[in-house]
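Appendix B. Chain record.
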Amino acid sequence: MFNFFGKKPKLVREDDKIYMYRRITDQVLVTDAIAAAQGTNLVIISSFFGASLQRMENLLRARSFPCAVLNIHDLPALPLNGVPALFLLDARQIVSNLSLQSWLMKPQCSFRFLFTEHYPIFSAEQQALDILEQASQESQQQVRFYAGLDDRLFQVFGGNNIMQLMHKMGMRDDEVITHPMVTKSIANAQKKIEKKVTHEFTASGEEDWFQKNMPH
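Structure tokens predicted for this chain:
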């Protein structure tokens, strides 16, 4: 149906979900993904790091929930007719693969993207979000990032200090920290890192990335 008022769906950027420790964050992410896959959304767990995607696949298999790596050379037909679907996707493909971009822009298909962590380089992450923003012009898309205070990225703006403060306040390890100001602080940390990295080396995981790109 043509929309005479010109209103279009938009990309819904939900506040980050942050926990004390990465191990808890991963469990929550998997739980959220499984719950979302039971609904009408097509759920995609995405990361710039292969090690993170492998970790997610292992956790999903441990819970006996079917998932598949999204094959950009053989993308499934949309819509999926109500069949629960959960895919894993290398986030770099969002920016680089035109076939995937066209697939994401199919009308009447709602995607829910769950990113395992923030990428250290702000502009690279933003490029992926810009593509998802374009895709959301046809149908509403949802995006959420997950993080642990023990992630290396958080060390840039005192993740350990935040953990100590949370413990002093009596906060449990499994309590979520979610606030727009925290999300903004992460973006500021990414921008600081980006200014320091003159030549980026690719890496399999976050720890590997920091060892290669910010060894000191």
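Further analysis of this model is presented in Appendix C.
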